Task: structure prediction
Amino acid sequence: MELARTLRAVEELSDRHFNVLRAIERSSLRGSAALPEAISRDLGLSGDYVAKLLKDLHGASLVWAPHGRAQGYVLNYAGLDALALRTMLRRGILASVGGALGVGKEADVYEAVTPEGERVSLKLYRAGRTSMTRYRRTREIPSELGSYLAASVRFASNEISALRTLSAAGLPVPRPVYRNRHAVVAQLIEGRLLVRVRSVQRPPELILEELLKSIKDAYEAGVIHRDLSAYNVMLDQEGRPWIIDWPQWVGRDHPNAEFYLRRDVQNVVYFFVRRYHLEVPPTMVEDFLSSVLQSGAPQ
Ligand SMILES: Nc1ncnc2c1ncn2[C@@H]1O[C@H](COP(=O)(O)OP(=O)(O)O)[C@@H](O)[C@H]1O
Ligand SMILES: [Mg+2]
Result:
């Protein structure tokens, strides 16, 4: 995996390298490339020394000079990974990072271990990854890449705030551990994605009922998932459903709250109808929605 290479760079590079990497991060998040002269001025280092540090960072694929060195450097996702991983390793949040648990559209999820020996999940956002080939061709690389990096940081921050609220309210979501930049560390769920489970060990109507209860509890806690489907539900070893992947959640006061809530409920209910041939009354979704909307109504 590519992350192994980044982890090696985190071990091998010096504090000076990371000072330069942080300077490039600051420019990138503002949407511009960092010029070598500016870095050497800001850090009070000679031009030759900065050039050498940049060469090492470039060699480790943490940074990129899209229009040539003289036009400046931008941060790659590997560079943002390196910054977040170094921070979490140094702060004693993580002791090591292992293999991949899942590669999604806009994030990579790895298994990791804390200094106490707890196995956890490490999610690294990659907003815009699917548009990479498009933006590579444009002349606006620094600003586009910058806005993707910033979006990844925002997703991670949104996700951890939902996990904090929901976990505190007792919902079956991964317990949050820590967030730095675009990286979220949370409880590792031992199990499989609902969509990949052909035969369930428990009656499917029970699983559906538990999921609907979670949707209702989340709504009462003020949170609507907005991307709920069998791809974002994991069944643990006892067959209990956990809801993952919360970066796009909205609050109950969102103008389209009801629309998103309905879509989440429909996705889940119709999945169970199709996959497990559950028979549900035709008014079931609407009846359930009314009960949820009522329960969340302000007193
Ligand atoms: N807390 C977790 N424990 C175990 N596996 C996880 C956890 N979170 C995510 N995964 C795995 O990683 C995959 C992608 O994670 P997800 O949060 O759905 O992000 P996305 O779909 O945006 O890429 C999931 O489908 C799942 O296989
Ligand atoms: Mg997902």
Observations:
- The chain has two domains: 2-187, 192-295.
